[in-house]
Task: structure prediction
Amino acid sequence: MIARRPTRFRWLLALGLAFAPNLLGCATCRLQADSPDLRPCDDGFAFTQDGWKLGMRRVRPLFPDPAKDPVVLCHGLGLNGTFWTITDRNLAQLLADDGYEVFIPDLRGSGASRRVGNVGAANDLLRNTLLPEIGAGAWNMDDQAFADVPAILDYVEATTGKKRVNWVGHSLGGMLMFAHLEMTGRPDRIATFVGMGCSTDLVVTPQTDMIQANFGLRLLSHLMSTSRFARPMRHYRPAGLAKIDKFYYSAENVDERTVSRFYGYTLEDLSGAALKQMDPWLRKGRLLSADGAIDYASHLDRITTPTLFIAGDGDIMVDNPSMEATFAKLGATDKTMLHFGKKQGHVDDYGHCDLVWSRHAPDEVFPEIVKWLDRHKPGTIWAWEQGPTPPTAPRPSSQRP
Result:
């Protein structure tokens, strides 16, 4: 008599067979995406001192303004540079239309970035499987802040001749700038800092739900590539996934097409070391260095760079009180914080990724960022005291190289 296989096993086997074509060759499929904006950032590469090559996307304006410093758009943890370009009307395009040259990096462990040498070559093969890459869990936030950020700045300077950039970071892409500006000997390389949904402080702790998710992801990361396993969710997502998705975005604000692109092109593996570094932040509300020696929340007074904070009233990952606590400690005398939600007359309360992905962001969020950057253009003195920036004439769309 033949024993019957458990029902759960049969369902998993059927699911695996159904999605096998989407899993196998995952990296190759992303390289062949219909639009360049959905592919890894590979217009060029920035090289770090610890042996990584970081993919870079360059968006050139048709009518560049030579007086404006370039803009770097930096994604957060577990994502890649397509975070900024999976919507049809995106911030990179709007900035380029206003004369800014825009650079979008794939930080280490994401997109087109890879280790140099034999390890990188082996990982290129593993990216077409469900197996985790070699050393995928070894890097942390400090590595990105102190190795990736300088490499990106060097690349932009070598490419454009500009020694300063406007840094726009979402979530961890902004948190990196807290660490970098506090500890670097060259804070002058950052002309302005725009932090979207980022903080060194968490007012309400412990964040139980996120702590549990953090622990689970750290375990899974040793066994498989979680991002490639989730790639088929571009086509189908179980109802229970909404409990996780709510931390990223608000379903009522973000188009289904954007969410599908997120799973298909933007989601990346989470480094176990980076997740471990986030643990004290989730438990005690303090962003620490990986070795615990530096409390980044205690040195915010060192940051004197002109800063704009963008906060979403519906953000449950980095809430408004946490951003306000961080904002209050900044040493910058030129600092502004803008909230986006119904209380401010906006269409809806913006969630964590809504600030970039919402169908309303191009009309409500992005113009405020562009106006603030324009007011801080080199040669513009105390422009924020002179009233709002006058409207600019529409420009044709920008172009890629």
